[in-house]
Amino acid sequence: MIYRIFALAVLLGGFGSFGAQADNANIVRTATGEYSYINQDTDEIVGHENWSLLIDRDGSRTFTIAQRWDERDYVTRTILRLDANLRPIETYQTRWDDKGWASSGVYTVVENTVTAVVTGRGGRATQTLEVPEAFSMVPHPLTTDGLHFWYVDAPVGETIKGTVYNIRKRDELSGGVLGVVHTVDLTFLGEDSLTTEAGTFDTKHFKMGEDSDFWIDARDGVLVRLSYGPEGTRYDLTAYERSD
Question: What pTM, to 2 d.p., does this model score?
Fold first, then answer.
């Protein structure tokens, strides 16, 4: 019940109110943005995502994200908190599908463990998994995909092994979504100037595995573009505003 109330609060809160809190001592910067999901063969827009960012005076930051795939009747709302180095602190996510509300979950990081408590149509499940100091969390909104590379400090072209806590394992009894810890190949490919509808950005270009290219605005880890070969989909930042 608590999850459902929190989800409703997120929905009703919207994404335009953060700018009005400029005098709040806990908020030093804000930003908002939008992504379009684009079929690379037809240029058809097949999905949307809106997000807002609050940066605290201690350097930690909070993303609030609304994601929708209209052709699938699929909606998620996600809140992701990170420390000043972009290491995950906690995530809250709630999901809807073609049958309505599907599940909600809270994923909390304490030192080197992630504990998940998820609730779905069939009940509740819990999980605790170990993670290393250097890892990222994958709740799956595009906004969070710019945050996998915070610890990559390698020469251009060199591949390192990274670790992700990937929220993708559906619990059979509850229907809630738990995490899987696995490694990924992360490669830094250099710096590029990239232009989208949102503007021109100085980006760092990374590759994850063999099929996914990421262009990241270096300041806040904001994803500017993701090209994902297997789906034939490109995800572009199409609107972006920040308070400074």
Answer: 0.86
